[in-house]
Amino acid sequence: MRHLVSLLLILSPSFASAKAPADEYFKVETIAGSFVDAMEMAVTPEGYVFVTERTGAVKLVNPENGKVKVIATIPVEVRKKEFARECGLLGIALDPNYEKNKWVYLYYSVQGKPVHHLARFTFKGGQLGSEKTLLEVPHDRENSTCHEGGSLAFGPDGCLYLSTGDNTCPFQSNGSAPIDEGKNRKWYDAQRTSANTNDLRGKILRIRPTKNGGYTIPKGNLFRKGTAKTRPEIYVMGCRNPYRISIDQKTNYLYWGKVGPDAGSDSSRGPRGYDEINQARKAGNFGWPYFSANNKPYADYDFSEKKTGKKFNFEKPINTSINNTGLTELPPAQPAFWHYPRASACAGPVFYSDLFPKHQGGLPAQLDGCLIAYDWTTTRIRLIKLDDKGNIEWNEPWLGKYRFVHPGDMAMGPKGEVFILEYGSAWYDGKDGKLKRVTYSQTPQSIAVSPSDPRMKGLPKDHPGTKLIAETTCLACHNTTQKSIGPTYRDVAGKYAKDPNSIEMLANKVIKGGVGIWGEQPMPPHPQHNIEETRQMVEAILKVRKK
């Protein structure tokens, strides 16, 4: 590493990489930790960071000394077995005039009542108080429904944007479109939400908050106020789970990541699962549950008769579901801005160097106009360079030499630095979420080898299967010793290590996916791996020992 750094010292930042400086020019440091299911953050003009935890706490972090203070505990509904799977305290944003009014907006699942609240609080005396509810979003909590979205962001237009998920159970659709119109099957039909012009779920909403704690409807939303069978708050419809959104602070373009379905391959019912990074320059319909990726269509499927019908038409999508309370004919579907095989896509900020003071550790001007995209599951981060028209100029990996654990939010600091909020290693109730800061240096430095990922503790370090596990999506659902949404590797080893036929069986299951052995939650297929690779992964897992 010393020789590499010496070489990089000779090279200029622009020569070290054709499009972005090498990772050695960026420093990633942990500011604070021990967050429980860290969800979203908001950075004040002074550089303090508000962090929300899914279980209800709002914390304020001082990045200069790492001190963390609890400033509110919101009573929220959280998971109980298969009830309210992804509910809780979901989103936070600061008012554009925060320095004067100290208004903080939260989006959370109301305890004991099947609704989400978008509410405004005032930060005063070191605490949040004076709650005013702006908007109420009804939602279902039964039958393993999930996808709640909940991301908040203000645009330079002064409008507040809120993402909402389709609030649908995806586990009985074989990884395809959940459009089950059977009797008493509404929880499995995203046509009642995402494709429903009269429902706030599966959308990105845009409103203009008012001083009295209400809101008005800005011009340019998808449906005019007063249009029958529509909601005027809707800016974007046809979303599955827009987990994290951002607004370009110059163009006002909206970006969001769509977490895609689980299908591992194309079928007669529709395409394999794809994630999307989307861009909305104006209001529109982005197709779910009828289309995915670049408008790849799903087929109209009869779940009771198990019959596949015609493919949906992106130019004229029609919603005839018995669960639809909105318009039958929907706006034309828009294709994804960029898509890739299913993981957990998130949209971060768009960076402009002239919005920040120079030479204070902010990102370099070389990254001007870059949208930072990242993935909660694979943990990979990318820079998507936008030209002056908002089109993709190039798209490259970034910070790949660093290890992140479920990055769940990104935000720019007042000096042009990037804050990264890690959700933590466990799917539910983990206690190792971290706030990290990325700064830039004119000269390169050695990248310290970080401790082993806590999710991989106990796996044989030098086994080729361990390396493969670290680079796949397995760690999204599994830990070695701590129960997450899937079984621990220790439990898998305990069940199968002595079975001579288990390696081949489990290797095939990794490729094809499956459900039922460890509960209702399906394991998505991994067709990107061949049988030799999955055998190595299974061999490494079966070497995990009991305590």
Give the SSE layout.
Elements (H helix, E strand, L loop, with lengths): L1 H9 L2 H4 L9 E10 L2 E6 L5 E5 L3 E6 L4 E7 L15 E6 L3 H4 L1 E7 L5 E10 L2 E12 L13 E3 L5 E5 L38 E7 L5 E2 L17 E4 L4 E6 L6 E5 L15 E7 L3 E2 L5 E2 L3 E2 L1 E4 L4 E5 L26 E4 L3 E7 L18 E6 L5 E6 L5 E7 L8 E6 L5 E5 L10 E8 L23 H8 L17 H8 L5 H11 L18 H12 L5
Helix pairs in contact: 4-7, 6-7
Characterise the protein shown here.
The protein is mostly beta strands and 547 residues long. The chain folds into two domains: 2-440, TolB, C-terminal domain (Neuraminidase); 454-542, Orthogonal Bundle (Cytochrome Bc1 Complex, Chain D, domain 2). It is built from seven helices and 30 strands. It has helices at residues 2-10, 13-16, 98-101, 464-471, 489-496, 502-512, 531-542; strands spanning 26-35, 38-43, 49-53, 57-62, 67-73, 89-94, 103-109, 115-124, 127-138, 152-154, 160-164, 203-209, 215-216, 234-237, 242-247, 254-258, 274-280, 284-285, 291-292, 296-297, 299-302, 307-311, 338-341, 345-351, 370-375, 381-386, 392-398, 407-412, 418-422, 433-440. Strands 10, 11, 12, 13, 14 and 18 form a six-stranded mixed sheet that branches. It has a four-stranded antiparallel sheet with strand order 1-30-29-28, with no helix packed on it. A hairpin with a 3-residue loop joins β19 (291-292) and β20. The longest helix is centred in the C-terminal third of the chain and has 12 residues, at 531-542. The two termini are 36 Å apart.
